[in-house]
């Protein structure tokens, strides 16, 4: 006799976390800051502006955020694990999936790529007498809309 858990039935109207990543941008299932920051990182490193991060572009993101290089083999493994065509690269939705996985930190990576935006925001808050709530709000193209 095997010890197996009964299959859990999804609650009606409930969406799995993975499915939430790809829902309409108007849906509040993911924090807007998460979506905006992933989109900003993707746009920043998508040098050819084709909407996908190829090996060279994803390698650049990896080097800037972790200091580690990304060889072609690792790139192929990443693409395979998230179902992307390595010839095309990672879409914004695929990068959302990467950042939703354990061990990924969008906040840390965003600050490494855009440190001046955060510094400017904090300086403005201090000069306006406002308290820093630690929450960054980012619009399209990484524009800070916190104030």
Walk me through what this model shows:
This protein is mainly alpha-helical and 147 residues long. The protein is built from seven helices and no strands. α2 crosses α5. The longest helix has 14 residues, at 32-45. The radius of gyration is 18 Å and the shape is elongated.
In short:
This protein is an all-alpha fold and 147 residues long. It is built from 7 helices and no strands. The chain is elongated.
Which class best fits the helix and strand makeup? mainly alpha
- Give the uncertain stretches in residue-range form: 2-19
Oligomer: single chain
Shape: elongated
User: What's the total count of β strands?
Assistant: 0
Profile the largest sheet. Answer: none
Helix content: 40-55%
Q: Could you tell me the strand content as a percent range?
A: under 5%
Number of helices: 7
List keywords for this structure.
147 residues, mainly alpha, 48% helix, 0% strand, disordered N terminus
Describe the protein's topology.
Blueprint: H1 17-20, H2 32-45, H3 55-66, H4 72-82, H5 92-100, H6 106-113, H7 115-127
